[in-house]
Amino acid sequence: MSHLLVDLSYHGFGHIAQAAPVVNALAERVPGLRVTLRSGVPYGVLAQRFHCNFTLISRALDFGMEMVDALAVNVEESAAAYRNFHRDWKGRVAREAEDMAALAPDLLFANVPYLSLAAAARAGIPSVAMCSLNWADIYAHYCHDRPEASEIHSQMLAAYNSATCFLRPLPAMPMENLANRRAIGPIAKLGRNRRAELDVRLGILPADRLVLIAMGGIAFRLPLDSWPRIPGVCWVVQSSWQVRHPDAVEMESLDMDFTDVLASCDALLTKPGYGSFAEAACNGVPVLYLDRKDWPEAPYLVDWLKRRGRCMEVERAALEQGAIAAQLEALWALPPTAPVEPEGIAQAADSMLDLLVAGAA
Fold this sequence. Notes:
By secondary structure, this protein is of the alpha/beta class. The chain is 41% helix and 16% strand.
């Protein structure tokens, strides 16, 4: 029985959205595959995406960047956290290598904690990294002018380069400092369009519009309560927002998989993030997005979605006031595009299967 160790960053839901379809596909190819997940992500969230049997070790192996909210990075806190994280880097790697060796995996799949990759290299365990970003590039973008930045950045890059390969599912940052990078196609879960069912349940007409509002896994609440009503438009929102708007529907009340809800909606309102952009493009859903002006991954996500799907930017001031009726109409007037094929799932699963087979030989 092959043992796959999956280490996940918990910095929003994009890492889960990328990793889960690949692990699910690999589990279908390898009967009896034993999967261990290590992450700070709650079990219930993981179980919604990982459809194979897995054991969870609740442990955060990285922190990404410290955030003010879903759009803004706290640079000072992030720099301090990285200084602390790397203070005894060799010792930290050695301890993690011992822990990993005790788990005895045949392969590490990291999305995308670099400490895990450094530990795997020390323990002699094959590893595959996969992500549309890496924390070395993100750290360098915000903290390159710190006196300690050069050493920390070098340690991060060495860890990423120690992997057998670093798979870059499109759309992705260039990652030119990684000699082991390998581009693959997009990764996204495909949902079922259940719009007819929602029309009956919600008492709306087929001509009405459903707009899903999903701002990612980092807290960011829009003031939907004070938004004006837009005739024929209903908003699908998360229940934790406790929205009091006559045209708002709580997503959880629909009792549907998130991707089915997405595939059944007429638009997605979100911020640039891999999971939301890739799943919207692959399910043929147009996107109205609030840009992340200083997040270095965002330009690559936006450029790709403009070429492969339908999207328009909305300014924060307009979004705060709910003055987006004209933007939505303009979005829906864009020429339709064919849904993107999530080719990266099979490509990544095949790469990992080759390593598992080689390790068993």
